[in-house]
Amino acid sequence: MKISKEKIEKISEQALIYLFSQSPKALFTSHIAAELARDEEFIKKILLDLKEKKILTEIKKNSEGVPYLRRSRWRLSDKAYEFYKLNQINK
Predict the structure, then answer these.
(1) What does pTM read for this prediction?
(2) Of 6, 34, 36, 56, which sees the most CB atoms within 10 A?
């Protein structure tokens, strides 16, 4: 089953809105997938695409500096956060 680009963009927007609402907290891929009721691998693909566009920042270490072996946390990049913040004020 193939998902259209429009639907992928809408799901990406939902992920960004959720991350903005939880900011500055960084969330695991599994938490984002559960909130959006989507498959983790699908959400990971979307998050990696947003990382390439420099909209998200991937965190691969825990708070003690130990690298995660199979997990990643995500948060909005500083530029993306400021953009969302300005757009929320203007609405």
Answers:
(1) 0.83
(2) 56
